[in-house]
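Hi R.,

As promised on Friday, here is the backbone we talked about, encoded as structure tokens. Could you run it through your design pipeline when you get a chance and send me back a sequence?
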């Protein structure tokens, strides 16, 4: 069964041309990205014992980003030294990602389609940020991600929590005031940490770290112990 929901792919495909505009429809992702990258970098250093001062902690590693959009995470991973593959359900996003990477002089392998149906060699790092809440079958999607993870590899996921705060912040306020494009989220599809962890366990993964992604009026988005709004999860093979 496909993990792709056609209307979701169409929605994000319509935003492709504006993806790299930090003040455009993806402005919220641009604000989230530095915080998420900081978490990912710490996880990489901890997992592989890398020097935090190194600019290329992923040298010699293969990385896969699923639901990559126009490459907002793929490009930093490539700069960290990884051989990166980005997969997305919207062909418009893949076209935008290829164009932007070429303009930056970066080599990233971009593919359009359903990760569950792709024959790919295992990857050392698998990421999928703000994606699992948009797929048809979260359990099957996590299993497909796990299938692409190499032994000894690292997986990092992020997603909104299904709470009253997330509904208020992301849909009532975020989409209502135009900070997030209308129709981006369906609150009923948000996953609690326990639900995502259960899917991971069923796919043969174990959680090694969970942190909240919260918002402070004075500091903006930050990593914290509060998972009420959004959270990140680090996983390895059981």
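Update: got your reply. Pasting your designed sequence below so it's all in one thread:
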């Amino acid at each position: 069964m496909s993990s792709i929901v056609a209307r979701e792919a169409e929605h994000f495909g319509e935003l492709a041309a504006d993806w790299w505009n930090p003040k455009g429809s993806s402005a919220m992702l641009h604000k989230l990205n530095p915080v998420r990258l900081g978490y990912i970098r710490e996880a990489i250093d901890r997992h592989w014992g890398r020097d935090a001062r190194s600019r290329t902690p992923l040298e010699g590693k293969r990385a896969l980003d699923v639901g990559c959009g126009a490459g907002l995470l793929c490009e930093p991973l490539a700069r960290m030294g990884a051989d990166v593959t980005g997969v997305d359900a919207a062909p418009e996003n893949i076209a935008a990602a290829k164009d932007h990477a070429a303009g930056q002089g970066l080599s990233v392998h971009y593919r359009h389609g359903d990760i569950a149906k792709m024959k790919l060699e295992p990857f050392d790092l698998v990421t999928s940020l703000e994606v699992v809440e948009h797929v048809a079958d979260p359990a099957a999607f996590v299993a497909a991600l796990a299938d692409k993870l190499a032994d000894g590899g690292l997986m990092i996921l992020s997603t909104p929590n299904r709470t009253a705060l997330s509904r208020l912040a992301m849909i009532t306020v975020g989409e209502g005031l135009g900070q997030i494009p209308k129709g981006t989220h369906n609150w009923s599809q948000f996953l609690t940490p326990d639900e995502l962890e259960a899917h991971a366990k069923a796919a043969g993964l174990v959680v090694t770290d969970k942190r909240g992604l919260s918002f402070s009026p004075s500091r903006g988005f930050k990593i914290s112990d509060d998972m009420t709004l959004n959270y990140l999860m680090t996983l390895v093979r059981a």
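One thing I noticed while checking it: The longest strand covers residues 149-160.

Thanks again,
M.
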